[in-house]
Amino acid sequence: MPETPFASVILGNEPGSFPHGVLAERHPAIIRQVRDALPYGPGQRRALDELLRNCAEGTVEPLPADAPDRAAWQAWGLAEYAGRSWFDVPWLWSESYFYRRLLEAVGYFAPGPWRGIDPFRPVKRAELDAPETDRELAALDGLRDLPEPERDRALLHGSLWGNRADLGFRLSAEGAEDREPAPALVADDSERLWSLLPPDGTAGLVLVADNAGRELVPDLLLLAHLLAGDRIARAVLHVKPHPYYVSDAIMADVLDGLERLRTAPGAAGEHGRLLRRAMADGRLTVRAHPFSCAPLPYERMPDDLRAEFAAATLTVFKGDLNYRRLVGDRRRPPTASFAAATAYFPGPVAALRTLKSEVVTGLTAATEARLVAAGQRWRTDGTHALVQVN
Q1: Is 163 found in the same domain as 55?
Q2: pLDDT tens readout for residues 134-163
Q3: Do 311 and 336 contact (CB within 8 A), yes or no?
Q4: Is residue 338 domain-shared with residue 353, that is, in the same domain?
Q5: What secondary structure letter does DSSP report for 259?
Q6: Residues 111, 131: one domain?
Q7: Domain that holds residue 313
Q8: Quick one: average pLDDT of 162-184?
Q9: How much is the pTM?
Q10: Same domain, 101 and 154
Q11: 341 lies in the same domain as 194
Q12: pLDDT, tens digit, for every residue of 258-286?
């Protein structure tokens, strides 16, 4: 899309803005959290301290000459942005490169015992093992006797709301509307989403995952529900090839989530065992494409990934970062067309997203006016969500 005053790429150089706060405050906090989470040695701790100083005072530095993905990052913009302030390059790029530099600092790609060790694993495991997860999994038992359309809605809303999955489950139980306020959906194309999965059970679904832990588990449950009910014949789950954005899911997180389900009582355990069988017989496969960690919009996806999405009956993108990459991390008005923003996509596509950043499309003028009048930070505080389909 050409640069216009209404669709410019988002930068982080405006003090007081949400992107500026992420770069100036959140990233330093993440470095400190990682530094304290695992018993890194002096060299790693010095590298983390240097990254902390660089984020606050320095400019974008190149990757080491022997970095395995140096050529990819050069092509993804490093050749252009090296030497510039973190705040003066596209925010999506700056965020993504920060996490790549963080992995460099802790030796994730280097030979030695720390190679391949996820610096965010302690946080992910703590969330997955939290009592709240038990409560959310127990809520599944209340869906057994519901009509199929209500179970569909419950599992979809569980996936949509992530670590508030039990809220989504309860909302579809009889009388739930009297006990809980309806989630603040700013757009809801749920019926269109279901219409894209034909009743003959031959559909192929691609789910591009977002976060691990209590947000990945509801995604797995949704896939299990669709496979168990013969709503789809096969599913592909896309995760990140390496740690990314603190909580983004990698293969190890999928395995942790499956084990958490398998060992749970009731319906959750049944779903976990179904998913393990589905992986064994090929109905469920997991992918970790390098582009999943690229600092670029999906409009620039490589040909092999485009072909995979084109072959799917429906591709579902989960979460906030994937939404930003799907529609483009640009300053469009909220009423800009979601269909136009995703017109490049090679097949039917849906977004399930809790709003945690400023980018949003596809709202009606009335919805935007209502949200603005309420005076809340509705774009960024995680209290609103959307289901959109093209």
Answers
A1: no
A2: 988 998 999 988 898 999 999 999 999 886
A3: no
A4: yes
A5: H
A6: no
A7: 125-389
A8: 51
A9: 0.93
A10: no
A11: yes
A12: 999 999 999 999 999 999 999 999 999 99
